[in-house]
Each structure stands twice: as structure tokens, then as C-alpha cells.
Amino acid sequence: MELATYATTAHNSRGRQYPDFANINRSPFQRDRDRLIHSASFRRLDGKTQVFAYHEGKNYRTRLTHSIEVSQITRTLCKSLGLNEELGEAIALAHDLGHSPFGHAGERALQNSMKNFGGFDHNINSLKIMTKLEVHYPEFPGLNLTWETIESTVKHNGPIKKITSPYLKAFNQSFDLDLKNYPSLEGQVAGIADDIAYNNHDIDDGFRAGFFSIKDLRSLPFIDKIITSFLQLHPECADNPSLIIYHITRKMITRMIFDVMECSAANLRRYDIRSPDDARCQKRFMIGFSPKMQSELKELRSFLKEYFYTTTPIARMDMKSQRLVEELFSLFMNDPKLLPMEERRRLSAQSSDSQTAEVICDYIANMTDAMAIEEHRKLFDPSSRF
To answer: What count of other Cβ atoms lies within 10 Å of the Cβ of residue 331?
Structure first.
């Protein structure tokens, strides 16, 4: 398929941070995708919370399955809009690479713990993983991905007007990520695919966990309409809520994808977007939902907040998760000798508190839920020897 003029092309890539070999069989963005898939950090996403912690059930989404769903939606949208599917896929697979254990509760814990040391943001941690912490090659640190994959992963939520992270500031000085402008159109697609994926799989996961019923969902007019139409065609499924839920999520994802396609195509025409830089220099996202869909999404998010995200079981698990991460961080800060030897080797007798905090934050952020729980047990349970 021929790419649109506003698509990011491999031959116009700004390259990699370090000299790297060329590959005649795979494009630079395909190689980025493959390096991400083969990274330890990507595999660990299977053990990191999306909404439910790893031990709460195997049928719920994890950060890994969420990333795969985002990738699938991204490829669909990129293909329909004439964008670079390979770049979009790489950004989608990388977008949550830096998430801490226990999802947003773990992120809050690290934000609190790091508030005097530059803070914590999972997008910046994704950058650190891609450019420093994943070491697969003797010639350079990190995965040495293309500028386009790194730039749009860091900025898939939008421009970064104020740099608070010391790591981002130092990296940006050597490999300018054009932080004040919007990401590529492929990065914008990955960002909106993230919204489509989590809003819809949270309907599925929340229902299957028993937080709300089909009747509750029918309080949303647009979902009630979907259910009514489905049951008119398949009245025999009225007593099969599982099939109804599958149909709701399938139909909602399809509606959102077509809405984004139509709205984004109109934006690209309206703002006369002819090149990747035309899109980056705008003062708004070019990829987006229509006002009608935005209104429906607002209603859906309010529903999920009331019936799911703020319920007592979720709130209690978030509290326990946040406390566990904060206790780990505090313990290591008070006595860095408790860190594993591999992490202690990154420190010296002259290491500042800021340097120590960074090493501890890297260590905890890259744990899975199970690793964090086990480390906490070893350190706080007197019956555990190691």
C-alpha cells in the first residue's frame, strides 16, 4: 500500500542515536518492533497490572495484553489513513513499556517517593528502558531505536512543555526529541488506540469481575441501542450475557475506529496536512474523535469510574499496592545495602541521594507485581531468610 505524503517514511528517518548495521530484509521500524518484542521489559508487562493485579485472575487484561490490543487497533487505523503501519506498531508496543508494578497505584507511589529527585513518569521510564536499561549489544546501551519510535513513544500523550526529569533533559540535549511539538501522526494514532483499547476492555473486565451488570450498562443510551439491536437479531442470546458483552465491546471498538478515521481524515484536509512536520507543528491533535464520540466517551468513563475504578475492592487493592511500593522504596533509601548486588554495583560510596533514588526507582519500576510482592515479603517477613 502506498503511504500518504503526511506519513513517516523509513527513508526519511532521522536515524538512531548510535551507528548501527543496515538490514535488507526489515525496515528500520520493523527492527524497532522486533527489538521491543524481544526485550525483557516487554515480557515483564505480562506480570504488570492493567486494572487487576496478576493474582486476581488470569482472564483479565495485563499490560502486555493491553499493549497487543493497542497495537492491533493502531495498525488498523494507520492502514486506513495511509500512515506507516510499522512505525505505529512499534510505538504502540512501546507505549507502556515503562509502567511500574500495580499500574497507576504503583506509579503514584513512585511519584511520591521521587518527588524530591525529579519525579517519576512511566513515559520517561519507557525512554530510559529503550535508551539505557535494556542492554542487548556491546556497542551501545539500550535498544538503539530510531528517533521516530522514541520521539512518539515519549510524546504519545502530547507535547512536553516543561521538562522535570533530569534523564529526559540530559537525553534531549544529545538527541533532540522536539518535545514542544506534537508527535507524528503514527504516534497520535497509538495514543488514541490506547484510549479505544482500555475503555472497551475495561467494560469487558469489569463485567466479568461482577462489578456491574448488563442492566447497569443499559443506562448508557449508546450501549442500550447496541444491545437492543443485537437482541432483535439474536433473541436467543437474551440469557447469554457473555455473548452480549462480546458484542458490545466489538461494536464499540468498531464504532470508535470508524469515528477516528472519519474525524481524522477531515482534520487532515481542513488543516492541509501534507507532510509529517505539518502535523507536528499544529496546535492540536490531528487524530481524534468527533464531538459526539467524545461525549459518549465522557459518559462511559463516568460510568466506569462509578461502577469500577472507585469501588471498594479496587480502592483497597490500590491502597495496598501503593503502600507496598512506598515501603520498598523507603527501606532501600534508608539502607541501600539491602539492594541486590547487581543494583548496588551502580552505586558508589560517593553516590548522592539523588543517584541512589534513581537506582532504587529503576529497580522497583521494572518489577512485575509478583516480584514486588515477593521482595516485600523477603524484606518485611521475619520468617523469610533471604
So the answer is: 17
Residues in the chain: 386
Task: Tell me what pLDDT residue 381 has.
Answer: 85
Which region, left, alpha or beta, applies to residue 351 given φ > 0 means left and ψ of -120 to 50 means alpha?
Answer: beta
Residues 57 and 116 both lie in one domain? yes
Model confidence over 274-296: pLDDT tens digits?
A: 999 999 999 999 999 999 999 99
Return the pLDDT at 21.
78
How far from chain centre, in Å, is Cα 287? 18
d(C-alpha 163, C-alpha 207), whole Å: 39
**Phi–psi pair at 146, nearest 5 degrees:** -70, 155
pLDDT tens digits, residue range 368-386? 999 999 999 999 988 876 6
Cα separation, 309 vs 326, whole angstroms: 21
The range of the structural domain enclosing residue 37 comes to 10-174
Q: Is 386 inside any structural domain?
A: no
Q: If you average pLDDT over residues 60-84, what whole number do you get?
A: 95
Quick count: other Cβ atoms within 10 Å of Cβ 112?
14
Answer whether residue 145 is part of any domain.
yes
CB 97 within 8 A of CB 126: yes
Q: Tell me how far apart the alpha carbons of residues 186 and 8 are, in angstroms, rounded to a whole number.
A: 8
Q: Report pTM.
A: 0.94
Residue 189: inside a domain: no
Predicted pLDDT at 55: 61
Place of cell 486506513: 80
| Residue 150 shares a structural domain with residue 255 | no
